[in-house]
């Protein structure tokens, strides 16, 4: 099995423009004071450091590139030309409007064009875009575009089904509402039967 590794550039990092860790921790103390809390009380003394450390993990997608995940493909597919589907990929993201969680599942499929990915790479791609401030619409489009531009398959389909805590914790407080977004490229856009089969397999059609 032949492996091919490619590097795909993404926009340059802006690390040099980022505040220091100390400045980030001070910003958390400011928020605590704004809430009416005392950042110097015993239970909150380590909170700024913990929040900054947690945010470094939750938003680690800014430090990762899709090309590092999708750049390694395999040529030996034994003539396989049908859909490859990875469904029920759990993810946690944060909405860019209120910075509260988005919790859901992603379903990603593609039709190979001579090369295939290791299946875990698709879940890692979802994780990259989830670990950024997001709208669900943007995240759906980003995953589909990355698959299409870096893998060059015959078709790509992405469906995301997620709950937005900005709706359940605040505002209208609709705890049972979910949002579904999808993106179909190539054969999934042009072949209605293939698109319907994808939807059935992910439980969105009868």
Cα gyration radius (Å): 20 Å
Order of helices and strands: EHHHEEEHEHEHEHH
- The span between the termini is 38 Å
Reported for the largest beta sheet, the result is: 5 strands, mixed
Q: Which structural class should the secondary elements be placed in?
A: alpha+beta
Low-confidence region ranges:
1-13
What portion of the residues fall into strands of 2 or more residues? 15-25%
The 3D shape can be described as: elongated
Strand order of the largest sheet: 5-3-4-6-7
Oligomer: single chain
Average pLDDT number: 89
Q: Got a strand count?
A: 7
Helix content: 25-40%
Number of discrete helical segments: 8
Key descriptive features of the protein:
206 residues; disordered N terminus; 8 helices; two-stranded antiparallel ribbon; alpha+beta; five-stranded mixed sheet
Give a short overview.
Helix content is 38%, strand content 24%.
Describe what you observe in this structure.
With 206 residues, this protein is α+β, with helices and mostly antiparallel strands. It has helices at residues 21-35, 47-58, 66-70, 119-130, 136-151, 165-168, 187-190, 192-201; strands at residues 3-5, 72-74, 84-95, 101-111, 133-134, 155-164, 179-186. Helix 1 (21-35) crosses helix 2 (47-58). The longest helix has 16 residues, at 136-151. It starts with a strand and ends in a 5-residue tail after the last helix. Mean pLDDT is 89; it is low at 1-13.
């Amino acid at each position: 099995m032949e492996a091919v590794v490619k590097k795909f550039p993404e926009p340059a990092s802006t690390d040099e423009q980022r505040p220091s860790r100390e400045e980030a921790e001070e910003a958390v103390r400011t928020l605590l004071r704004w809430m009416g809390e005392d950042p110097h009380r015993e239970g909150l003394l380590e909170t700024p450091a913990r929040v900054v450390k947690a945010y470094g993990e939750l938003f680690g997608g800014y430090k990762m590139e899709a090309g590092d995940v999708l750049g390694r493909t395999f040529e030996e597919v034994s003539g396989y030309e049908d859909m490859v589907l990875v469904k029920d990929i759990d993810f946690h993201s944060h909405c860019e409007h209120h910075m509260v969680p988005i919790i859901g599942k992603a379903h990603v499929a593609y039709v190979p064009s001579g090369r295939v990915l290791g299946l875990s790479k698709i879940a890692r791609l979802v994780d990259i875009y989830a670990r950024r401030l997001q709208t669900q619409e943007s995240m759906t489009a980003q995953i589909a575009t990355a698959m299409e531009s870096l893998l060059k398959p015959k078709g790509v389909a992405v469906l995301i089904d997620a709950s937005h805590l900005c709706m359940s914790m605040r505002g209208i407080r609709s705890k049972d509402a979910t949002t579904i977004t999808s993106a179909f490229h190539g054969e999934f856009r042009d072949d209605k039967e293939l698109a319907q089969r994808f939807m059935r397999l992910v439980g969105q059609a009868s």
